[in-house]
């Protein structure tokens, strides 16, 4: 879901999700403003203009995995990755059986990020790293598959709000590479649209299976 060109099954559905989108957009903007101001970010045109964004909301449902996709055979439901965003807000529901699926790389070790009632997880994205000159890190995070003994009761939902800059935002390719971001783009600069296009590749698990 974005700011425009959305399709809804009913007016009631549209009203609920449009309100939720607006709340998440406002929260993401305020969070990003604090991060950028604190870290002395340089944003051409000013931070307020920069945060007039092209955000995206994804609502993900992770059902119980089939037996052949349990951790013993396929450890990850989503491979380690960083977000192409300014900040990302993740509102996750707990698995009924207590399994924790989301992990974040902190100091070289992936640690559990359990859901906490009435709270969201804030992840700084790669765009914050660039506009802050590398002072803000965009951590890798991943989604685990449950072990066979935890398969039943491991379903959950995850509402993920990506605060993304407008498509014509200029990305410094040398800086992106210096900060450790993988990109096949060449030259000195590219648009955010091109950067996203160059990074939308299939995530794979260690055994080669595509992660949905």
UniProtKB/TrEMBL annotation:
Pfam families: 2OG-FeII_Oxy (PF03171)
A single MF term (Gene Ontology): oxidoreductase activity
Matching PROSITE patterns: FE2OG_OXY
Keyword terms, alphabetized: Iron, Metal-binding, Oxidoreductase
Segments forming domain Fe2OG dioxygenase: 52-165
Family label: Belongs to the iron/ascorbate-dependent oxidoreductase family.
PANTHER family: 2-OXOGLUTARATE (2OG) AND FE(II)-DEPENDENT OXYGENASE SUPERFAMILY PROTEIN-RELATED
Name of the protein in question: Fe2OG dioxygenase domain-containing protein
Species, as recorded: Plectus sambesii
């Amino acid at each position: 879901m974005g700011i425009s060109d959305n399709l809804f099954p009913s007016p009631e559905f549209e009203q609920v999700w449009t309100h939720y989108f607006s709340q998440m957009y406002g929260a993401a903007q305020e969070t990003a403003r604090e991060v950028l101001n604190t870290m002395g970010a340089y944003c051409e045109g000013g931070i307020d203009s920069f945060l007039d964004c092209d955000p995206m909301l994804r609502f993900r449902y992770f059902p119980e995995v089939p037996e052949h996709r349990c951790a013993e055979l396929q450890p990850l439901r989503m491979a380690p990755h960083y977000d192409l965003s300014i900040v990302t807000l993740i509102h996750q529901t707990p698995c009924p059986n207590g399994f924790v699926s989301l992990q974040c790389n902190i100091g070289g070790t992936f640690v559990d990020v359990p859901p906490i009632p009435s709270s969201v997880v804030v992840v700084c994205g790669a765009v914050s790293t660039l506009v802050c000159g590398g002072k803000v890190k965009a951590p890798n995070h991943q989604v685990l598959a449950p072990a066979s003994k935890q398969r039943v009761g491991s379903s959950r939902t995850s509402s993920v709000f990506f605060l993304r800059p407008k498509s014509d935002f200029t990305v410094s390719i040398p800086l992106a590479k210096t900060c450790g971001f993988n990109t096949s783009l060449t030259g000195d600069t590219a648009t955010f649209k091109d950067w996203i296009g160059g990074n939308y590749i299939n995530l794979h698990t260690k055994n080669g299976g595509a992660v949905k």
